[in-house]
């Protein structure tokens, strides 16, 4: 799923560069299809969290999925902001290194060369794709707020999501580059929170 999303929005932006600039009204059929498939993923993942009774421990993911789904479903219904949704999916590039990090941690490979290389790649993709995409969309909304459809909702949504990813970024830096003792991390819940985030 991650590979499919990554390949499709990368190809979409290369073929139609206006996707990255005309966020409000630019539309292509492949971009629309990508948002359809991605919405289905968020519905499935949210349903899996609820049905497997992990909602209490993963409430932040449910909030994230609800916020994303509202934006995506509005785009699908109105055919507006399809380009913005594609830009938002650039964060999935970072999900590749985040998931690799999780798998290496589950395999107790934190001291391996692969983990050390991946943690720097993960930091790079987090900044370049996750943070940059979020802040670019926020900047676009602020700059064009006066005439945007549902501008207030999108601004509030982006503010909440920006807060979440900055918190996750802090946790990531603390875990990989400024580690504390495992006992202390588990005592204050940091270790578990980081692991939950990486299963997104």
TrEMBL record:
The chain crosses the membrane at residues 26-43, 55-75, 81-100, 120-141, 153-173. GO terms for biological process: membrane assembly; phospholipid homeostasis; plasma membrane organization; regulation of membrane lipid distribution. PROSITE patterns: TLC (PS50922). Keywords: Membrane, Transmembrane, Transmembrane helix. Residues 1-181 form the TLC domain. SMART domains: TLC. GO terms for cellular component: plasma membrane. InterPro entries: TLC-dom, TLCD. It is found in: Membrane. Its main location: membrane. It is a multi-pass membrane protein. It holds the Pfam family TRAM_LAG1_CLN8. This is TLC domain-containing protein 1-like. The lineage of its organism: Eukaryota, Metazoa, Chordata, Craniata, Vertebrata.
